């Protein structure tokens, strides 16, 4: 694999499964988190403000 990371998006990023994906991918050597998606109630908020950390 080359030095360029594969860009990925995570849907449901503020939920428990999305949080786990972020935890697994944030420092992954092959992947880069490029986009996060969440429900309308999280629209316009910073991720840290939209998330009740479960992990």
TrEMBL record:
Gene Ontology biological process terms from the UniProt entry: methionine biosynthetic process; threonine biosynthetic process
Domain Semialdehyde dehydrogenase NAD-binding: 7-51
Enzyme class name: oxidoreductase
Keywords: Oxidoreductase
Entry EC number(s): 1.2.1.11
Molecular functions per Gene Ontology: aspartate-semialdehyde dehydrogenase activity; NAD binding
InterPro entries linked to this entry: ASADH-related, NAD(P)-bd_dom_sf, Semialdehyde_DH_NAD-bd
Gene3D superfamilies, A to Z: NAD(P)-binding Rossmann-like Domain
Pfam families: Semialdhyde_dh
Protein's UniProt name: Aspartate-semialdehyde dehydrogenase
């Amino acid at each position: 694999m080359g030095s360029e990371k594969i860009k990925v998006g995570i849907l449901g990023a503020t939920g428990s499964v999305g949080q786990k994906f972020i935890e697994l991918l944030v420092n992954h050597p092959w992947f880069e988190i490029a986009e996060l998606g969440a429900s309308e109630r999280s629209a316009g908020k910073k991720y840290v403000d939209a998330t009740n950390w479960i992990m």
